[in-house]
Amino acid sequence: MSHSTVPRSGAEAGTPVKTPVASADATGTRKERGSGKQGLRHRFRRDRALILMTVPAVVLVLVFNYLPILGNVVAFQDYDPYISDNGIVSILNSPFVGTENFQRIFEDAAFWNAVENTLVLFLVQLVLFFPIPVLLALLINSVVRPRVRAVAQAVLYLPHFFSWVLVIAVFQQMFGGAGMLSQLLRQHGYDGLDIMTDPNTFPFLITAQSVWKDAGWGIIVFLAALASVPTDLYEAAAMDGAGRWRRMWHVTLPALRPVIALLLVLRVGDALTVGFEQILLQRDGVGTDAGEVLDTFVWWNGVRNQDFGYAAAAGLIKGVVSIGLVLTANKVAHLMGEQGVYKK
Amino acid sequence: MTAVIDEPARRPNRWAAPPRPAWEEEPSKAGLAGKGIALSFACLAILFPLWIVIVTSLSSRKTIDEAGGLVIVPKGITFIAYQELLSGGQVTRAAVISILVTLVGTLFSMTVSVLCAYGLSRTGSLGHRWILMTLLATMFFSAGLIPTYLLVQSLGLTDTYLALILPSAVSVFNILVLRGFFMGISPELIDSARIDGAGDLRILRQIIMPLSRAVLAVITLFYAVGYWSAWFNASLYLNEQDMMPLQNVMIQLVQKQEAPVGLGQAIRTGQLSGLSIQMAVMVMALLPVAVLSPFVQKHFRKGMLTGAVKG
C-alpha cells in the first residue's frame, strides 16, 4: 500500500488537497468535481450528504477549539469570577485594564522561574530523549527473527498506552521514598533515597519517565522509514565492498534523515509544552522551584488562585510564542531542504 | 496443483531467522550477543516494574511484611486486595465510571470522526478545502487552558460527565488518519455502488468501513485509551468526589497515599496491606490497555504514517 511508505522528498508528500483538478483526475470519481463550471446550487445538492457528515465534528471543533480564542480577552481584564456562574456574563461585566496583567507578569519572578524550568526541561528532554527511539529502531530493525521482533515491539509499545497517573505511580513504587530502590538500599544498610521529590534531579526524572513511556512508541515512524529502503541499495553497497557499519552510515541513516528532521521540527515548534499532565502530577512533590513550568503556572494562577486575567495573560504569551516557534521551525526546515509540517 | 507441491503446507518457524541474502555477511557472535543484551535490557526495564506491581497486588500482608515492602518473588497468591476493592465502594464506583465514560466517549468520538473523515475523503466536493483547513489549523494553536475552562463552565458542563467527553471528543489527527485511509480505497468500488443506487451513508457503512477494519481498530484504541487515561478534565470540571473516575482515585490512593474510603480500618488493623491495595488499583488501570493494545499492534505503523504524511 502506498500508505506505508514514508515520503522521501517534498514532491512525494504533496497532499492532493492543494490541486483539486489534478486530484479529481487521480481519484477518478466524478471528474466534474471542482471544475467550477456548475452552479453552486448544483454542487451543494450533489455534496450535501458529505457536508452534513462533517457537521458534528466541525461544530465540536468550532466550539471547543475556536470559540475559546475569544475568551482570551480576559487577559486584558481584571476578571471577576464571582460576578456570575456563567463565565460569559462575567467577561462582559469585568473591567478592562489594558496591559496591566502583562506588566505584572514580566515583573513576576515566579513567571521567569517557570520560563527557565520550561526551557531546561525542553533541552534536557531533547538531548537525552530524542536519540533513543532512533537507536531502538535500528536495533529492532536488525532483528530478523519475526516472532522475536513482534514480541519486542509489543513490549516496547505497551507503556505508551499507560496514563501518566499510572506511569508516575510506577516510578514512585520504584524510586520513591518507600519504593523498590530505597527498600534495597535500606536492607543493605544505607539510607533510603527519594528521587521523586528531589528538585535537583527533576529534569532527569521527567526525562526518564518520558523515555520509559514513549521511547518505544517513537520507533514506529523510524521503522517505517527503514522498511521503505529498497533492499537493492544494501545489496549494491555490499557488492561495492561496504561492510555492515558503512551500509548503516551510507544507506540506512540517509533514509532516516527526513523523518528525523520532521520530528525535530515538530518538537522545537512544541518547545514550550513540556508534558503538562506529567509535571502537574509531580509539582507538589518536588516544589515549584523546579516543578513549575509555563503550563502549570497558568493552571495554578487561574484554576487554583482564581486570578483568571493574570493566568490567561500568561497563557496568551505562551500561545503566541508557540505559534511563532512552529512557523519558524518550519521555515528553517524548508530552508534546509526538508519537508517540515506543511509544504512550501 | 503445482503451487501446492512447490510450497509445502508446513508453517515456517517464526522464531527462527529467515535465510539471509547471499551478499550479507553472517552476524558475529559478539554482535548477536550485544543485540540480545540490549533488547533484553529494554524489555526488562518495562516489564520488571510491572511484574513487581502485579506480584505485590497479589501478595498477602504477611508476604509483604516479610519482603520489607515490594515483593519480587511471589509466595502464595491472594486476591484479597481485589476482592475488597471490587466489593462496592469508592474504587468499584470509579472503575464503573471509567468504563462507562470510555465506552460512551469512544463510541461518540468514532461516530463523529468516521463521518467527518468520510465527508472529507472526496477531494473537490463543495466546501471540502475550507472544512479541511478549519480542522488543520487547530493543530497549530491552542486557545489556552483558562479560556477553555471558562467556556466549559459557561456551557453548564461543570459536574456533568459531558465535561469529560465533549471538550476532547474530536482529535483532528485521528480524523486525518481515517481520511487518509478512506482516500486510498479504490474509487471504482464507490462509483459502482453509487450506480447501484447506494447513498453516501450506505457506501460508508457497507463498503468503506468493512475495508478499513485495521485503521478503525487503531483509532478506536487511540480514543479509548485517551478516555481511559484522562484525569485532568475530571479534576478541573468535577467537584463531587463521588463522580471521580479511576485515574483520579488512583492519584489519591497512590500519590497522596490515602486509604480508600471504607478500607482505612482494615488497613490500620493489619488485615489488609495498604501497599497491595495501591498495586491492585494500578493493575486495574493497566489491565484493559495491556490486554487490548497487542491485538491492534500490527496495524499501528500504517495508522501512524497515513496521518503523518497526509497531514
Secondary structure layout:
The complex is a heterodimer of chains A (344) and B (311).
Chain A: H1 20-27, H2 40-70, H3 87-93, H4 100-106, H5 109-129, H6 131-141, H7 146-157, H8 164-175, H9 180-187, H10 202-215, H11 219-227, H12 231-239, H13 244-269, H14 276-286, H15 288-291, H16 294-304, H17 308-335
Helix pairs in contact in A: 4-17, 5-10, 6-11, 11-13, 13-17, 16-17
Chain B: H1 2-6, H2 29-57, H3 61-67, H4 80-86, H5 90-119, H6 128-137, H7 145-154, H8 162-165, H9 172-183, H10 187-195, H11 200-211, H12 213-229, H13 232-237, H14 246-255, H15 264-268, H16 274-296, H17 300-310
Helix pairs in contact in B: 2-16, 5-9, 5-12, 5-14, 9-12, 9-17, 10-11, 12-16, 14-16
Write a structural description.
The complex is a heterodimer of chains A (344) and B (311). Chain A is mainly alpha-helical. Chain A has a domain of 228 residues: Orthogonal Bundle (MetI-like fold). Chain A is 67% helix and 0% strand. With 311 residues, chain B is mainly alpha-helical. Chain B folds into two domains: 48 residues, no CATH class; 229 residues, Orthogonal Bundle (MetI-like fold), CATH 1.10.3720. Chain B is flat and about 75 Å long. At the A-B interface, helix 1, helix 2, helix 3, helix 6 and helix 7 of A face helix 2, helix 5, helix 6, helix 7 and helix 9 of B.
